[in-house]
Protein backbone atom coordinates (compact mmCIF):
# COMPACT_ATOMS: atom_id res chain seq x y z
CA UNK A 1 0.00 0.00 0.00
CA UNK A 2 1.32 3.45 -0.85
CA UNK A 3 2.10 6.02 1.76
CA UNK A 4 0.73 9.55 2.08
CA UNK A 5 3.32 12.17 3.01
CA UNK A 6 2.52 14.28 6.00
CA UNK A 7 2.71 18.06 5.68
CA UNK A 8 5.42 19.46 7.81
CA UNK A 9 5.65 23.03 9.02
CA UNK A 10 9.30 23.92 9.11
CA UNK A 11 10.31 26.08 12.04
CA UNK A 12 12.26 29.13 10.88
CA UNK A 13 14.40 31.00 13.42
CA UNK A 14 13.20 34.47 14.27
CA UNK A 15 14.79 36.93 11.85
CA UNK A 16 16.98 39.61 13.32
CA UNK A 17 16.59 43.24 12.29
CA UNK A 18 19.27 43.96 9.76
CA UNK A 19 17.73 47.18 8.64
CA UNK A 20 20.15 49.32 10.64
CA UNK A 21 22.71 51.28 8.74
CA UNK A 22 25.94 49.55 7.84
CA UNK A 23 29.03 50.70 9.58
CA UNK A 24 30.58 53.39 7.47
CA UNK A 25 33.98 51.67 7.45
CA UNK A 26 32.63 48.88 5.14
CA UNK A 27 32.87 50.24 1.65
CA UNK A 28 30.66 49.26 -1.26
CA UNK A 29 33.70 48.01 -3.12
CA UNK A 30 34.57 45.59 -0.31
CA UNK A 31 31.08 44.13 -0.38
CA UNK A 32 31.17 43.60 -4.13
CA UNK A 33 34.53 41.92 -3.88
CA UNK A 34 33.30 39.60 -1.12
CA UNK A 35 30.29 38.50 -3.23
CA UNK A 36 32.49 37.68 -6.20
CA UNK A 37 34.65 35.49 -3.93
CA UNK A 38 31.77 33.64 -2.16
CA UNK A 39 29.77 32.65 -5.25
CA UNK A 40 32.53 30.47 -6.82
CA UNK A 41 33.21 28.89 -3.40
CA UNK A 42 29.48 27.95 -3.07
CA UNK A 43 29.47 26.38 -6.52
CA UNK A 44 32.57 24.30 -5.71
CA UNK A 45 30.98 23.12 -2.41
CA UNK A 46 27.74 22.05 -4.17
CA UNK A 47 29.70 20.01 -6.73
CA UNK A 48 31.63 18.20 -4.00
CA UNK A 49 28.70 17.76 -1.54
CA UNK A 50 25.45 17.55 -3.59
CA UNK A 51 22.08 17.60 -1.86
CA UNK A 52 20.35 14.26 -1.44
CA UNK A 53 17.15 14.02 -3.52
CA UNK A 54 15.29 12.85 -0.40
CA UNK A 55 16.52 15.56 1.93
CA UNK A 56 13.15 17.31 1.78
CA UNK A 57 11.09 14.14 2.42
CA UNK A 58 10.16 12.78 5.84
CA UNK A 59 11.83 9.55 6.86
CA UNK A 60 9.85 6.30 6.45
CA UNK A 61 9.34 6.08 10.20
CA UNK A 62 7.45 9.37 10.10
CA UNK A 63 5.27 8.46 7.13
CA UNK A 64 1.58 7.70 7.67
CA UNK A 65 -0.35 5.07 5.69
CA UNK A 66 -3.15 6.43 3.57
CA UNK A 67 -6.65 5.19 4.35
CA UNK A 68 -7.74 2.08 2.46
CA UNK A 69 -9.88 2.90 -0.55
CA UNK A 70 -12.71 0.42 -1.03
CA UNK A 71 -13.14 -0.23 -4.74
CA UNK A 72 -15.18 -2.67 -6.80
CA UNK A 73 -12.13 -4.71 -7.71
CA UNK A 74 -8.84 -5.73 -6.11
CA UNK A 75 -5.70 -4.38 -7.69
CA UNK A 76 -3.75 -6.78 -9.97
CA UNK A 77 -0.95 -7.06 -7.40
CA UNK A 78 -3.45 -7.86 -4.64
CA UNK A 79 -4.99 -10.59 -6.76
CA UNK A 80 -1.60 -12.10 -7.59
CA UNK A 81 -0.41 -12.07 -3.98
CA UNK A 82 -3.51 -13.35 -2.20
CA UNK A 83 -6.58 -14.66 -4.00
CA UNK A 84 -4.57 -16.93 -6.28
CA UNK A 85 -2.97 -18.62 -3.30
CA UNK A 86 -5.72 -18.67 -0.69
CA UNK A 87 -8.33 -21.37 -0.31
CA UNK A 88 -11.17 -18.91 0.13
CA UNK A 89 -14.59 -19.35 1.70
CA UNK A 90 -16.55 -17.67 -1.06
CA UNK A 91 -19.85 -18.71 0.51
CA UNK A 92 -19.37 -16.23 3.36
CA UNK A 93 -20.03 -12.69 2.16
CA UNK A 94 -22.61 -10.24 0.91
CA UNK A 95 -23.84 -8.62 -2.30
CA UNK A 96 -22.68 -5.01 -2.67
CA UNK A 97 -23.71 -2.42 -5.23
CA UNK A 98 -21.38 -1.87 -8.14
CA UNK A 99 -21.00 0.46 -11.09
CA UNK A 100 -19.28 -2.15 -13.27
CA UNK A 101 -21.43 -3.20 -16.23
CA UNK A 102 -21.66 -6.83 -17.39
CA UNK A 103 -19.14 -8.07 -19.95
CA UNK A 104 -21.91 -9.04 -22.37
CA UNK A 105 -25.58 -8.30 -22.97
CA UNK A 106 -28.71 -9.82 -24.44
CA UNK A 107 -27.78 -8.97 -28.02
CA UNK A 108 -24.03 -9.53 -28.37
CA UNK A 109 -23.99 -13.13 -27.10
CA UNK A 110 -25.57 -15.69 -29.40
CA UNK A 111 -25.60 -18.63 -27.00
CA UNK A 112 -28.06 -17.29 -24.39
CA UNK A 113 -31.05 -19.56 -24.01
CA UNK A 114 -34.18 -17.62 -24.94
CA UNK A 115 -35.77 -18.20 -21.54
CA UNK A 116 -32.86 -16.49 -19.75
CA UNK A 117 -32.48 -13.49 -22.06
CA UNK A 118 -34.19 -11.05 -19.69
CA UNK A 119 -32.84 -7.88 -21.30
CA UNK A 120 -34.03 -8.73 -24.80
CA UNK A 121 -37.37 -9.93 -23.44
CA UNK A 122 -38.14 -6.52 -22.04
CA UNK A 123 -37.33 -6.69 -18.33
CA UNK A 124 -37.62 -2.98 -17.46
CA UNK A 125 -35.29 -2.78 -14.44
CA UNK A 126 -31.51 -3.08 -14.77
CA UNK A 127 -30.44 -2.76 -11.14
CA UNK A 128 -30.01 -6.54 -10.83
CA UNK A 129 -27.01 -6.25 -13.18
CA UNK A 130 -25.04 -4.00 -10.82
CA UNK A 131 -24.21 -6.11 -7.80
CA UNK A 132 -20.99 -7.94 -6.99
CA UNK A 133 -20.37 -10.65 -4.43
CA UNK A 134 -17.95 -9.51 -1.74
CA UNK A 135 -16.46 -12.25 0.50
CA UNK A 136 -16.00 -11.27 4.12
CA UNK A 137 -12.30 -12.02 3.82
CA UNK A 138 -11.03 -9.02 1.84
CA UNK A 139 -8.09 -11.06 0.62
CA UNK A 140 -10.59 -13.14 -1.38
CA UNK A 141 -12.12 -10.35 -3.46
CA UNK A 142 -13.37 -11.56 -6.82
CA UNK A 143 -12.13 -9.67 -9.90
CA UNK A 144 -14.23 -9.21 -13.00
CA UNK A 145 -14.05 -12.34 -15.15
CA UNK A 146 -10.97 -12.40 -17.37
CA UNK A 147 -11.86 -14.54 -20.42
CA UNK A 148 -8.29 -14.57 -21.73
CA UNK A 149 -7.02 -15.99 -18.43
CA UNK A 150 -9.65 -18.74 -18.48
CA UNK A 151 -8.90 -19.74 -22.07
CA UNK A 152 -5.15 -19.67 -21.42
CA UNK A 153 -5.52 -21.93 -18.38
CA UNK A 154 -7.70 -24.31 -20.41
CA UNK A 155 -5.60 -24.21 -23.56
CA UNK A 156 -5.68 -27.60 -25.33
CA UNK A 157 -8.09 -28.84 -22.65
CA UNK A 158 -11.75 -29.82 -22.29
CA UNK A 159 -14.17 -28.54 -19.62
CA UNK A 160 -17.55 -30.29 -19.37
CA UNK A 161 -20.66 -29.20 -17.47
CA UNK A 162 -22.68 -32.22 -16.39
CA UNK A 163 -26.09 -32.19 -14.75
CA UNK A 164 -29.48 -30.53 -15.04
CA UNK A 165 -30.57 -27.18 -16.47
CA UNK A 166 -28.59 -25.33 -13.80
CA UNK A 167 -25.41 -26.90 -15.20
CA UNK A 168 -26.52 -25.71 -18.64
CA UNK A 169 -27.25 -22.22 -17.24
CA UNK A 170 -23.69 -21.99 -15.87
CA UNK A 171 -22.25 -23.33 -19.13
CA UNK A 172 -24.12 -20.72 -21.21
CA UNK A 173 -22.91 -17.97 -18.86
CA UNK A 174 -19.33 -19.15 -19.42
CA UNK A 175 -19.79 -19.21 -23.21
CA UNK A 176 -21.02 -15.60 -23.18
CA UNK A 177 -18.13 -14.47 -20.97
CA UNK A 178 -15.56 -16.19 -23.18
CA UNK A 179 -17.14 -14.94 -26.39
CA UNK A 180 -16.08 -11.40 -25.50
CA UNK A 181 -12.57 -12.33 -26.67
CA UNK A 182 -13.05 -15.44 -28.81
CA UNK A 183 -16.08 -16.84 -30.61
CA UNK A 184 -17.15 -20.42 -29.79
CA UNK A 185 -17.72 -22.79 -32.70
CA UNK A 186 -20.46 -25.37 -32.22
CA UNK A 187 -18.92 -28.67 -33.36
CA UNK A 188 -21.40 -31.20 -31.97
CA UNK A 189 -25.10 -31.25 -31.27
CA UNK A 190 -27.25 -34.25 -30.38
CA UNK A 191 -30.96 -33.84 -30.97
CA UNK A 192 -33.24 -30.83 -31.15
CA UNK A 193 -33.37 -30.23 -27.40
CA UNK A 194 -29.69 -29.26 -27.16
CA UNK A 195 -29.09 -31.67 -24.30
CA UNK A 196 -25.61 -32.61 -25.54
CA UNK A 197 -23.48 -29.97 -27.22
CA UNK A 198 -19.81 -29.18 -27.69
CA UNK A 199 -18.00 -25.98 -28.70
CA UNK A 200 -14.39 -25.22 -29.55
CA UNK A 201 -12.49 -21.96 -29.16
CA UNK A 202 -10.09 -22.42 -32.04
CA UNK A 203 -7.48 -19.84 -31.00
CA UNK A 204 -6.85 -21.79 -27.80
CA UNK A 205 -8.04 -25.25 -28.79
CA UNK A 206 -10.28 -25.12 -25.73
CA UNK A 207 -13.32 -27.40 -25.73
CA UNK A 208 -16.47 -26.64 -23.70
CA UNK A 209 -19.33 -29.12 -23.57
CA UNK A 210 -22.60 -29.85 -21.78
CA UNK A 211 -24.07 -33.23 -20.84
CA UNK A 212 -27.72 -33.48 -19.83
CA UNK A 213 -27.82 -35.78 -16.79
CA UNK A 214 -30.28 -34.43 -14.18
CA UNK A 215 -29.56 -37.29 -11.74
CA UNK A 216 -25.89 -38.00 -12.65
CA UNK A 217 -26.82 -41.67 -12.30
CA UNK A 218 -28.78 -43.99 -14.56
CA UNK A 219 -32.49 -43.35 -14.50
CA UNK A 220 -35.61 -42.29 -16.31
CA UNK A 221 -37.10 -38.79 -16.26
CA UNK A 222 -40.75 -38.48 -15.46
CA UNK A 223 -42.75 -38.10 -18.64
CA UNK A 224 -46.39 -37.49 -17.88
CA UNK A 225 -47.28 -37.46 -21.57
CA UNK A 226 -46.27 -41.12 -21.61
CA UNK A 227 -48.06 -41.90 -18.37
CA UNK A 228 -44.88 -41.92 -16.25
CA UNK A 229 -45.49 -39.56 -13.34
CA UNK A 230 -42.33 -40.17 -11.35
CA UNK A 231 -38.58 -40.46 -11.83
CA UNK A 232 -36.70 -43.77 -11.61
CA UNK A 233 -33.14 -43.63 -10.27
CA UNK A 234 -30.42 -46.28 -9.93
CA UNK A 235 -28.30 -44.60 -7.27
CA UNK A 236 -25.31 -46.97 -7.66
CA UNK A 237 -24.82 -46.61 -11.43
CA UNK A 238 -23.18 -43.52 -12.96
CA UNK A 239 -24.91 -42.26 -16.08
CA UNK A 240 -23.19 -43.88 -19.07
CA UNK A 241 -23.46 -40.84 -21.31
CA UNK A 242 -21.02 -38.67 -19.37
CA UNK A 243 -19.08 -41.51 -17.75
CA UNK A 244 -18.16 -42.95 -21.15
CA UNK A 245 -16.42 -39.70 -22.10
CA UNK A 246 -14.52 -38.98 -18.88
CA UNK A 247 -11.20 -39.89 -20.49
CA UNK A 248 -11.61 -36.92 -22.87
CA UNK A 249 -12.44 -34.43 -20.11
CA UNK A 250 -9.88 -32.39 -18.14
CA UNK A 251 -12.29 -30.56 -15.85
CA UNK A 252 -15.78 -31.83 -15.00
CA UNK A 253 -18.28 -29.45 -13.37
CA UNK A 254 -21.28 -31.27 -11.84
CA UNK A 255 -24.50 -29.52 -10.88
CA UNK A 256 -27.77 -31.19 -9.85
CA UNK A 257 -30.59 -30.93 -7.34
CA UNK A 258 -33.92 -29.68 -8.67
CA UNK A 259 -34.97 -32.95 -10.31
CA UNK A 260 -34.60 -34.71 -6.96
CA UNK A 261 -37.55 -32.75 -5.63
CA UNK A 262 -39.96 -34.72 -7.84
CA UNK A 263 -41.68 -38.00 -7.00
CA UNK A 264 -39.36 -40.93 -7.56
CA UNK A 265 -38.46 -44.58 -7.11
CA UNK A 266 -34.92 -45.38 -5.95
CA UNK A 267 -33.02 -48.56 -6.79
CA UNK A 268 -29.64 -49.87 -5.66
CA UNK A 269 -28.82 -52.49 -8.27
CA UNK A 270 -31.98 -54.54 -8.62
CA UNK A 271 -33.14 -53.74 -5.09
CA UNK A 272 -35.92 -51.20 -4.61
CA UNK A 273 -34.80 -48.92 -1.78
CA UNK A 274 -38.07 -47.06 -1.58
CA UNK A 275 -39.95 -44.11 -3.04
CA UNK A 276 -40.51 -40.41 -2.65
CA UNK A 277 -44.15 -39.36 -2.36
CA UNK A 278 -45.56 -42.48 -4.06
CA UNK A 279 -47.75 -43.86 -1.28
CA UNK A 280 -50.43 -44.90 -3.75
CA UNK A 281 -47.90 -47.32 -5.28
CA UNK A 282 -47.64 -49.18 -1.96
CA UNK A 283 -43.96 -48.23 -1.82
CA UNK A 284 -42.06 -47.50 1.39
CA UNK A 285 -41.03 -43.86 1.73
CA UNK A 286 -37.27 -43.53 1.33
CA UNK A 287 -35.38 -40.58 2.75
CA UNK A 288 -34.84 -38.06 -0.01
CA UNK A 289 -31.57 -36.81 1.50
CA UNK A 290 -30.15 -40.33 1.66
CA UNK A 291 -30.88 -40.87 -2.03
CA UNK A 292 -29.23 -37.54 -2.88
CA UNK A 293 -26.17 -38.43 -0.81
CA UNK A 294 -25.82 -41.81 -2.51
CA UNK A 295 -25.91 -40.15 -5.95
CA UNK A 296 -23.18 -37.63 -5.08
CA UNK A 297 -21.11 -40.43 -3.55
CA UNK A 298 -21.51 -42.63 -6.65
CA UNK A 299 -20.50 -39.78 -8.94
CA UNK A 300 -17.36 -38.87 -7.02
CA UNK A 301 -16.41 -42.53 -6.64
CA UNK A 302 -16.55 -42.90 -10.42
CA UNK A 303 -14.35 -39.88 -11.15
CA UNK A 304 -11.86 -40.86 -8.45
CA UNK A 305 -11.41 -44.26 -10.03
CA UNK A 306 -11.33 -43.00 -13.60
CA UNK A 307 -9.15 -39.94 -12.94
CA UNK A 308 -6.83 -41.75 -10.52
CA UNK A 309 -3.29 -40.38 -10.74
CA UNK A 310 -4.20 -37.80 -13.39
CA UNK A 311 -3.79 -34.04 -13.30
CA UNK A 312 -7.52 -33.41 -13.69
CA UNK A 313 -10.18 -31.48 -11.83
CA UNK A 314 -13.65 -32.24 -10.50
CA UNK A 315 -15.93 -29.43 -9.35
CA UNK A 316 -19.33 -29.77 -7.70
CA UNK A 317 -21.40 -26.59 -7.99
CA UNK A 318 -23.59 -26.62 -4.90
CA UNK A 319 -27.37 -26.38 -5.01
CA UNK A 320 -28.96 -23.02 -5.83
CA UNK A 321 -32.59 -22.69 -4.79
CA UNK A 322 -35.52 -21.10 -6.58
CA UNK A 323 -37.44 -18.12 -5.25
CA UNK A 324 -41.10 -18.78 -5.98
CA UNK A 325 -43.46 -16.83 -3.76
CA UNK A 326 -46.76 -18.61 -4.20
CA UNK A 327 -47.94 -20.31 -7.40
CA UNK A 328 -45.56 -20.56 -10.35
CA UNK A 329 -48.11 -18.89 -12.65
CA UNK A 330 -49.08 -16.07 -10.29
CA UNK A 331 -48.26 -12.47 -11.18
CA UNK A 332 -45.31 -11.37 -9.03
CA UNK A 333 -44.11 -14.91 -8.25
CA UNK A 334 -40.54 -13.58 -8.09
CA UNK A 335 -40.72 -9.81 -8.40
CA UNK A 336 -37.88 -8.71 -6.10
CA UNK A 337 -35.55 -6.12 -7.61
CA UNK A 338 -32.73 -6.26 -5.03
CA UNK A 339 -30.81 -8.98 -3.17
CA UNK A 340 -31.76 -10.02 0.34
CA UNK A 341 -29.84 -8.24 3.06
CA UNK A 342 -27.80 -10.26 5.52
CA UNK A 343 -30.20 -11.89 7.99
CA UNK A 344 -33.31 -10.79 6.10
CA UNK A 345 -34.24 -14.38 5.27
CA UNK A 346 -32.87 -17.75 6.30
CA UNK A 347 -31.93 -20.50 3.86
CA UNK A 348 -34.66 -23.17 4.10
CA UNK A 349 -33.96 -26.52 5.74
CA UNK A 350 -34.08 -28.55 2.51
CA UNK A 351 -31.53 -26.36 0.71
CA UNK A 352 -29.29 -26.35 3.78
CA UNK A 353 -29.31 -30.13 3.99
CA UNK A 354 -28.57 -30.59 0.28
CA UNK A 355 -25.71 -28.11 0.61
CA UNK A 356 -24.31 -29.95 3.62
CA UNK A 357 -24.45 -33.31 1.82
CA UNK A 358 -22.56 -31.94 -1.17
CA UNK A 359 -19.91 -30.24 0.95
CA UNK A 360 -19.38 -33.34 3.10
CA UNK A 361 -19.12 -35.73 0.14
CA UNK A 362 -16.69 -33.43 -1.68
CA UNK A 363 -14.53 -33.05 1.44
CA UNK A 364 -14.43 -36.84 1.98
CA UNK A 365 -13.50 -37.50 -1.64
CA UNK A 366 -10.82 -34.80 -1.62
CA UNK A 367 -9.27 -36.23 1.56
CA UNK A 368 -9.16 -39.71 0.05
CA UNK A 369 -7.31 -38.34 -2.98
CA UNK A 370 -4.80 -36.57 -0.73
CA UNK A 371 -4.10 -39.80 1.17
CA UNK A 372 -2.90 -41.49 -2.00
CA UNK A 373 -0.94 -38.37 -3.03
CA UNK A 374 -2.79 -38.10 -6.29
CA UNK A 375 -2.78 -34.98 -8.47
CA UNK A 376 -6.54 -35.12 -8.94
CA UNK A 377 -8.33 -32.07 -7.52
CA UNK A 378 -11.88 -32.34 -6.13
CA UNK A 379 -13.53 -29.18 -4.83
CA UNK A 380 -16.92 -27.60 -4.28
CA UNK A 381 -17.95 -24.41 -6.01
CA UNK A 382 -19.95 -23.21 -3.04
CA UNK A 383 -22.68 -20.88 -4.28
CA UNK A 384 -25.69 -21.89 -2.16
CA UNK A 385 -25.77 -18.80 0.06
CA UNK A 386 -24.88 -16.22 -2.56
CA UNK A 387 -27.50 -17.73 -4.91
CA UNK A 388 -30.15 -17.79 -2.21
CA UNK A 389 -29.62 -14.08 -1.54
CA UNK A 390 -30.49 -13.13 -5.16
CA UNK A 391 -34.28 -13.41 -5.53
CA UNK A 392 -34.01 -10.55 -8.04
CA UNK A 393 -31.87 -12.48 -10.52
CA UNK A 394 -34.48 -14.73 -12.17
CA UNK A 395 -36.34 -14.18 -15.44
CA UNK A 396 -39.75 -14.41 -13.78
CA UNK A 397 -42.34 -13.55 -16.45
CA UNK A 398 -39.57 -12.41 -18.82
CA UNK A 399 -38.83 -15.99 -19.71
CA UNK A 400 -41.00 -14.98 -22.68
CA UNK A 401 -40.65 -11.79 -24.75
CA UNK A 402 -42.70 -8.79 -23.60
CA UNK A 403 -45.14 -10.70 -21.37
CA UNK A 404 -47.18 -7.59 -20.55
CA UNK A 405 -47.49 -6.03 -23.98
CA UNK A 406 -51.26 -6.58 -23.75
CA UNK A 407 -51.48 -5.44 -20.13
CA UNK A 408 -50.84 -7.01 -16.74
CA UNK A 409 -52.44 -10.41 -16.19
CA UNK A 410 -53.24 -12.19 -12.94
CA UNK A 411 -51.81 -15.42 -14.30
CA UNK A 412 -48.50 -15.54 -16.15
CA UNK A 413 -45.86 -18.23 -16.36
CA UNK A 414 -42.74 -17.47 -14.29
CA UNK A 415 -39.24 -18.87 -14.13
CA UNK A 416 -37.96 -18.28 -10.60
CA UNK A 417 -35.32 -21.03 -10.75
CA UNK A 418 -32.94 -20.26 -13.62
CA UNK A 419 -30.89 -17.07 -13.84
CA UNK A 420 -31.02 -14.08 -16.15
CA UNK A 421 -28.04 -13.70 -18.43
CA UNK A 422 -26.18 -11.55 -17.79
CA UNK A 423 -26.91 -11.85 -14.10
CA UNK A 424 -25.84 -13.42 -10.79
CA UNK A 425 -24.79 -16.72 -12.38
CA UNK A 426 -21.81 -15.00 -14.00
CA UNK A 427 -20.38 -14.82 -10.48
CA UNK A 428 -20.29 -18.64 -10.38
CA UNK A 429 -17.76 -18.57 -13.22
CA UNK A 430 -15.79 -15.68 -11.72
CA UNK A 431 -15.26 -17.80 -8.61
CA UNK A 432 -14.44 -20.86 -10.73
CA UNK A 433 -11.70 -18.87 -12.47
CA UNK A 434 -10.21 -17.81 -9.13
CA UNK A 435 -10.13 -21.46 -8.07
CA UNK A 436 -8.37 -22.37 -11.34
CA UNK A 437 -5.72 -19.70 -10.73
CA UNK A 438 -5.07 -21.10 -7.27
CA UNK A 439 -4.73 -24.64 -8.62
CA UNK A 440 -2.15 -23.38 -11.11
CA UNK A 441 -0.21 -21.67 -8.30
CA UNK A 442 -0.30 -24.86 -6.22
CA UNK A 443 1.04 -26.93 -9.12
CA UNK A 444 3.92 -24.51 -9.60
CA UNK A 445 5.05 -24.67 -5.97
Can you walk through the features of this model?
27% of the residues lie in helices and 17% in strands. Strand 6 (185-190) and strand 7 form a beta hairpin. With 445 residues, it is of the alpha/beta class. Residues 1-28, 30-35, 44-72 and 74-83 have low confidence and may be disordered. It has helices at 28-48, 76-83, 147-153, 165-178, 240-243, 288-306, 349-371, 384-388, 425-444, and strands spanning 3-4, 64-65, 93-97, 131-135, 158-163, 185-190, 196-201, 206-212, 217-220, 231-238, 251-255, 264-268, 271-276, 313-317, 377-381. The longest helix is centred in the C-terminal third of the chain and has 23 residues, at 349-371. The radius of gyration is 32 Å and the shape is globular. A seven-stranded mixed β-sheet has the order 6-7-8-5-11-14-15, sandwiched between helices. A four-stranded mixed β-sheet has the order 9-10-12-13.
Write a short abstract of this structure.
The chain has 445 residues and is α/β, with parallel strands linked by helices.
Amino acid sequence: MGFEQQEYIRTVPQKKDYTQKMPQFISKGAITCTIYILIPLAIIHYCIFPLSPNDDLPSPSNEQKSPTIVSDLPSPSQEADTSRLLRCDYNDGQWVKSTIPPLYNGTNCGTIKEGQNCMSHGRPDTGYLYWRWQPKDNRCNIPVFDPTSFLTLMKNKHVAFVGDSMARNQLESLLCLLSTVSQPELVYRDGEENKFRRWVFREYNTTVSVFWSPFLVEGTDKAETMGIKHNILYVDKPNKRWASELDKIDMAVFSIGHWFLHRAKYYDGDTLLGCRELREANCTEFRFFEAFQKVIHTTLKEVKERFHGSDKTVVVTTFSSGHFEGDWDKFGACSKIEPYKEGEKEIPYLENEMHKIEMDEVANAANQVKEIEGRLRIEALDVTKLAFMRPDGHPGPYMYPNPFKDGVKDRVQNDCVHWCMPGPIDTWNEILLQMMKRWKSEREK
